[in-house]
Design goal:
heterodimer, A: about 260 residues, alpha/beta
């Protein structure tokens, strides 16, 4: 693919004897939204952390806009990271900082913006996720789970990144708040024109935000295709997952009573 | 089970841990203490590590000075050498007890809080979030704590020395019937600059140990509340043991003739 924005080739990562990524190959075109589905412990989070350089892959290549990013250090790594935004599963807000300082963090620390200006942008971004300026001076501990997620989203989009990762954006939320978050993700991504990778096991969320869907199992991509074709994939693993059946080719390590 | 296998395994895991700490110290020095420097963070940590430890260190020094005066009086009165009380209290406080007890008290107060704070940040992915915001956690979290501890511990010990000597003075003059003027004159005549500076050098080293152990165990905590609890315990215990070992090494180094 010529215009592929994110390309992973044969990515491998193991922790001790446990092989978590077993040759992941993926590519995401610019401006596309890829949702990676798969059960718990199949290597979804590890894949994102390898792309961000939080974890070092054992082998394989990761290219962002054609540039290899594995093993980048110092200034080059900081520059690479400035192109990313990420929404964490538990929002991962800094609890020693107020809401607006959280949202403005990347602008102030990463891009050396003046605090007053960064605050204005933070309040604007909070508005985009449906939070009023009165929330700005609160602390993360004073917010509900859904509000924390929205602040996390505002922080992820604050620096207008070209790539955004969403780690289980709807996990732990009620269905209505989950849909609110899905809509915000779709809106924000459209506004920025960003390339995104989301990982989830919530099919409703996947259908809503995905252009393409990939299924990961035991550290490998089993299937990848347009979101529309997920119901007609003909892949038994995908079928089992999207219908949530205990019986099928994916065997859980559960002892039968 | 073979006892030699046990000994071998324990030795190997100890060496492994020492290696990991050494690598962490390398990162703390090379990444944490080089630009960019977060002044706001350093100031905040100085307040938390230094200023708010004043009551604990002051009370410890006061009671230790008092107890020391009592003991030395009881011993020296057997030889009619009560005039030695002032000078031995001053020496004991400035050379040994001031820095060691302040170090141990701060290890309990600050080492634990650093490990618990960074450990919680680790398990809630806040440290990963820093990375995605193009901020090096060693520069933002570790550097300021190490700098603050190394700078403020000698200041704390200097104040503790003064209060400790005062504690000896109060006990000596109020309950042992020593002459106040003679007590102060003995202290001033006998105490040399080296006695004080050697204690302050020790304090700086202890500050480094406390901050590095707190950060190391916090950064490497795993697995929720229990992991953070374990990190906190390990930070305090390892800092306390290293302080006592370093004190012995520094005493033999600084007072070797």
């Amino acid at each position: 693919m010529a215009d592929a924005h994110i390309v992973l080739e044969n990515l491998r990562k193991s922790f001790g004897p446990k092989q978590v990524l077993n040759g992941v190959t993926l590519s995401v075109p610019k401006g596309h939204s890829l949702v990676v589905i798969g059960g718990s412990g199949t290597g979804k989070s590890v894949m994102l952390k390898c792309i961000l350089g939080i974890l070092q892959p054992d082998s394989g290549t990761i290219r962002i806009a054609g540039e290899n990013v594995v093993g980048l250090k110092g200034k080059e790594r900081d520059q690479m990271l400035q192109r990313f935004g990420m929404l964490f599963q538990g929002a991962a807000l800094f609890d020693s900082l107020s809401v607006w300082e959280n949202v403005a963090f990347g602008l102030i620390q990463g891009r050396h913006m003046a605090r007053a200006r960064a605050k204005d942008i933070a309040i604007e971004k909070l508005g985009q996720v449906g939070l009023g300026p009165e929330v700005a001076k609160l602390y993360p501990a004073e917010l509900s789970g859904g509000m924390q997620k929205r602040v996390g989203l505002a922080r992820a989009i604050a620096a207008d990144p070209e790539i955004i990762f969403f780690d289980e954006p709807t996990t732990g939320l009620d269905p209505i708040m989950a849909d609110v978050i899905n809509n915000l993700i779709v809106d924000c991504v459209k506004r920025l024109g960003a390339t995104t990778i989301s990982i989830t096991h919530d099919m409703a969320s996947a259908r809503k935000i995905a252009d393409d869907i990939a299924m990961i199992h035991k550290g490998q991509i089993l299937w990848q295709g347009p979101a529309k074709t997920i119901d007609t994939s003909g892949n038994p693993y995908v079928e089992q997952f999207i219908h949530g059946r205990a019986e099928g080719p994916i065997q859980m390590d559960v002892l039968k009573p | 089970m073979n006892i030699f296998a046990h000994i071998g395994r324990a030795t190997l895991s100890l060496l492994e841990e020492i290696g990991r700490v050494a690598l962490f110290i390398k990162d703390a020095l090379l990444q944490g203490l080089t630009p960019k420097i977060f002044l706001r963070q350093i100031f905040e940590q100085m307040m938390r590590i230094g200023y708010f430890s004043l009551p604990v260190v002051g009370l410890t020094a006061f009671f230790t000075g008092g107890a020391l005066a009592l003991q030395i009086y009881l011993g020296s009165s057997r030889f009619n050498a009560e005039s030695l009380v002032a000078s031995i209290v001053a020496l004991g406080i400035t050379r040994e007890l001031g820095p060691v007890l302040a170090g141990l008290m701060v290890a309990g107060r600050v080492g634990a809080s650093i490990a618990a704070e960074l450990g919680t940040m680790r398990v809630t992915e806040q440290i990963d979030a820093l990375v995605t915001l193009a901020t090096n956690p060693f520069k933002y979290l570790v550097g300021p704590r190490v700098i603050a501890a190394v700078v403020t511990l000698p200041l704390l010990v200097a104040i503790g020395d003064t209060i400790g000597i005062m504690g000896g003075y109060i006990v000596g003059t109020r309950s042992l019937g020593l002459n106040g003027y003679a007590y102060i004159k003995n202290t001033a005549d006998f105490l040399e600059l080296d006695d004080v500076t050697s204690g302050l050098i020790k304090a700086a080293v202890f500050g480094f140990i406390i901050a590095v152990m707190g950060c190391y165990h916090g950064f490497n905590s795993r697995g929720g509340a229990q992991g953070v609890g374990r990190a906190t315990t390990n930070a305090v215990v390892s800092a306390a043991i290293l302080i006592l070992a370093a004190n012995f090494a520094l005493t033999s180094l600084l007072f070797a003739d």
